[in-house]
Amino acid sequence: MTFTVTAASGHLGRLAVQALLDQGVPADQIVATARTPEKLADLAAKGVQVREADYSKPETLANAFAGTEKLLLISGSEVGQRVPQHTNAVNAAVDAGVKLIAYTSAPYADTTDLPVAPEHKATEEIIRAAGVPFVFLRNGWYFENYTENLAPALQHGALLGSAGDGKISAATRADFAAAAAAVLTSDGHENAVYELGGDEPFTMAELAAEVTRQSGTEVAYRDLPVDEYAKALVAAGVPEGFATILAEGDAEIRKGALFIDSGDLRRLIGRPTTPLADAVAEVLKK
Ligand SMILES: NC(=O)c1ccc[n+]([C@@H]2O[C@H](COP(=O)([O-])OP(=O)(O)OC[C@H]3O[C@@H](n4cnc5c(N)ncnc54)[C@H](OP(=O)(O)O)[C@@H]3O)[C@@H](O)[C@H]2O)c1
Prior knowledge:
CATH superfamily of the largest domain: NAD(P)-binding Rossmann-like Domain
Shape: globular
Bound molecules: NADP nicotinamide-adenine-dinucleotide phosphate
Helix content: 40-55%
Distance between the termini: 39 Å
Number of strands: 9
């Protein structure tokens, strides 16, 4: 059996390769791909096969996917380019005779109004049309989206957003990676759509309270109108287009776009998901 993980140079891909190793897959049965294979030297040193794969360069994908039985197709990070890029990847997977495509999608991708969702919805449709058995891993937000950006909140005593009291079923990247590895290494997931989120949803105010509790620094959540939040993000150095996506995303989160109570993540990883308190502690100790 050969398992291929794309975008293995990214945070999630690297964790997914590690999760496959942790679940006992021999290193030489894992192919890790990246646009720049040199970034994967550490995995090559562990015996993982390393190959070049750029979603924008179909000629790299045929070689990358040769011999693959199960493919973890991690969505690319070039927003706006991803539909043609993922189409290239799916076509290459079909040509290579891949038996299962597990794709990292977004929560409720086919019905949500989250601004990042249309490319995921389109990719899911392309995969369904390809006729290869699939698994849609509709990953909720990473805890790390919040915890890796706590420095300004601690500095100013304020966490900004437009998410109101929207509940966020976030989870660690490591938990999402463990779920991805589990669907590759166990049977019975063909054509499943998993809505993946953490066991204990939190609001932004609850996140601020947890940061306050653990850091000893008073951090309050300040809920802003969408346009003001977008302006605050731009002022903090976030590029304008991305700031708009984030702020408009918060407007959907306020309405419940990231509340996920399927229990799918917990079931796939076979244990409770990592709690918010642990994710906050992890970054504060650094
Ligand atoms: N659920 C969430 O909260 C959330 C948050 C952010 C992103 N995402 C999505 O989840 C994916 C994985 O998350 P992450 O944290 O691992 O992101 P990340 O650390 O930013 O990694 C993105 C990965 O995509 C690769 N990539 C970008 N364009 C590519 C292309 N044309 N061909 C092949 N690979 C390409 C990058 O390769 P290089 O090393 O060559 O740049 C990198 O390995 C992201 O790409 C994005 O689609 C989800």
